[in-house]
Amino acid sequence: MLNLYIRTACPYSAKVLEEEAKAMKLDITTKNVAYADVAADLKARAGKLQTPYLVDEENNIEMFESNDIIEYLHHRLSGTGA
Fold first, then answer.
1. How many percent of the chain have pLDDT more than 90?
2. Whole-number Å distance between alpha carbons of 69 and 2
3. Would you say the pTM of this structure is higher than 0.85?
């Protein structure tokens, strides 16, 4: 399962979600840090509230940085690994 922590109006979150993940037709659950419980979850998980933040539960991968996330998603989709 892919989870993507996002922030409303964050251009980097939009870059990953709108420009890449939807174009690749990936099933990604979004978690908006505008909600206090989601923000607390991200801070506990990653140590800060930076977005976007990807969690790939299936492969035990977690990462910040939109370009790194996009690269990872392309590798994952192609089956070549991270």
1. 73
2. 11
3. yes
Residue type, 22: K
Query: Quick one: tokens of 57?
Result: 């539960």
CA 26 to chain centre: 12
Closest listed residue to residue 72, CA positions, set 6, 28, 8: 28
Bond before 52 cis per omega within 30 degrees: yes
* pLDDT reading at 63 higher than 80: yes
Cα(76)–Cα(32) distance, rounded to whole angstroms?
Answer: 23
Structure tokens at 60: 């035990």
Quick: pLDDT tens for 24-40: 888 899 999 999 999 99
The architecture that CATH gives domain 2-78 is 3-Layer(aba) Sandwich (3.40)
C-alpha span between 17 and 30 (Å, rounded): 9
